[in-house]
Amino acid sequence: MKSLKKFNLLAMLLAAIIIASACGNGNANENTDGGNGEGAETEELEGSVVIDGSGTVYPFMARMAENYMGEQENVSVEVSRAGTSAGFSKFLAEDGTDFNNASRPIKDEEKAKAEELGIEVQELKVALDGLTFVINKENDWATDLTEQEIKDIFLASAGKKKWSDVRPDFPAEEIKTYGPNENHGTYEFFFENILEEQQLVDDINLQQDYSTLVDLVSKDKNAIAFFGYGYYASNTDKLSAVKVDFGNGPVAPSVDTIAEDGDYAPFTRPVFSYLNVNHAKEKPQVLDYAIYTMENANAVAEETGFAPLPEEEIKTTVDALNNLK
Does this model's pTM top 0.85? Predict the structure, then answer.
C-alpha cells in the first residue's frame, strides 16, 4: 500500500513538473514571438533616402523629409533641387536616386531610358500647383492681367517690349521678364502647355534657383516672373501675385483656386515624385518613405502652398505601394 501511495505521489509530482515545464516553454515561445512581432512593428528603420528633381516640389518634399526624420531618427532623407529634367538624369542612371520630384509628367524618352536600364518606375502624384506670375511690390499697374496679356508679355511674336505695349495706360517702361531655366519642369510646362511651344522673348532672364528669381523681382519694379505658387506663398512679403482673368474676372492664385475644379484651373497642374521601385524593394526605408509621403501628402501640401488631392486618389496610390511589400 505504501508503495502504491509513493507511486501515486511520484506520478503526481512528475505530471506537475511536465505541466509547469510546458507552460514555461509556451510562455517563453510567446514572449519570443511577441517580442519579435512587437519589434517588427516598432523597429526603427535605418539607412538613407536620396531625392532630387523639381525646385517647385522642393518645399513640399523638404517639409515631408523633416517630418519623417522626426519619426525615423535613424533614416537620413536628402532632398536636392536640380530641376525636373536634371533630376531625371540622376534618377535614370546606374545607382541613381531613389526618388525624382517632377513638376511635369515623365516623358516618353525618359520611360524608354528607364526600361533600357531595367528600372521600374512608379509615379506618385503628390499635389496640385498653380503657375503663378509675380511682380514687384511697387508695381501698382499690372496687378491683374488677362490670360492673353500674360502670354503676350512672354511671347517673342507679340512684340510687347514696354508695359505701355500691353495697355496704353501702363508706364512706358521696359518689361523685364524672368523665369526658371530649361532644367525645370515649370519652364517646360509654361513653354509647352501655356505658350504652346512658341518662342519666348529673346531677353528673358532664366535662372536655376528660385530664390534668385525672388530676389531679382523684389529689386526690379518692372519685373515679372513665373514659378509655382508655393514659392510665392513663402515670399508674399517680397512679391505680389498677378490676378489672372481667364474670361470671368480676375482670379488670384490660392490653395482654393488652384484646385482641379477651381477658378485658376487653366494654370493648374499636378506635381509628382517618381519612385525607383527596384530600390523600394531592396531598401525598406525607401518604400516606407514613399508610403509615408502619400499618407501625409494632403497635410503637407496645405502647409507648403499646394492644393490637396482627393482622398480616394491618395488611397489608391497607398494601396499600390503597400502591394510592393
Answer: no
